[in-house]
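Human: If only I could read backbone structure tokens as easily as an amino acid sequence. Take your time, and here it is.
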Amino acid sequence: MPFVTDDSNMLDDWLVAGPATSLAGTSEQQPHVTRLLGETLALWTDAHGTPQCRLGTQPLVVQSRYGYLWVCPSGRPARPLFGFPEYTEPGRRTVDCGGIGIAVSGLRVIENFLDMAHFPFVHADYLGKVPHTEVAPYKVDIDPATGEIWATDCRFWQPRASAAHDSGADVLYKYRVMQPLSAMLYKSSARPGAQDAIALFLQPIDDEHVIAHTMLACFDEVSTDAELIAFQQTIFGQDKPILENHAFKRMPLEGRAETPTRGDTSSVTYRRWLRERGMRFGTRAAG
């Protein structure tokens, strides 16, 4: 296998390889080119509109789902692609908020996505504000049927929870981790009783570089697409320098390289979940 890793967690799963719109106007002779696991892939649509993928002369398994292209590097997916029912739910708007390159292990990006404690400090006046810094107790479980991580009963006060909000509110969150590099956030919506869905799909360029793709499936009849995209890009723009300045670019899974706090229940569960999967890609060896 020519990829930079032999970790089955990467090779035998569905990895995002960019938005489906990138294949517009492509052909086998003029494909869209992108990077995945240290290699250059060529992607295009055939005469029937079906996505195709190739690494050199080797065809790879690819599918188009949820507005993105998903590639299984080994061609032997260990499981079907996770469900995202909100993507096709009537009344929801789906908005591709673009990709942003981040020079750090993708595992770091997912862990940061799960962390509410940094909201008042990194996302001040957007997702948090001093002195509202306390992370209230919440529950974290692993779904026995799917193996996915779910963090529920998450609450945090936010001065501007989304592009559609212009005042503070106590926001209810749910987090879901479907794959090592794919996660979802469900949060209070402008529609009473509903929750907006924010998907984070990471394209692993190598162990220390990813492209973070964000998809919204929301109930927002006020904001323009440009406003929704700008809000998400602003949040990631604030996270990017913090992530890239970690002492360790790769995620330490063992030892005491980093000490969790009371609000890190999701992070502790995520790291244990990765260890139990035998995750090596994007991790830092103990010592």
In short: The first helix runs from residue 8 to 11.
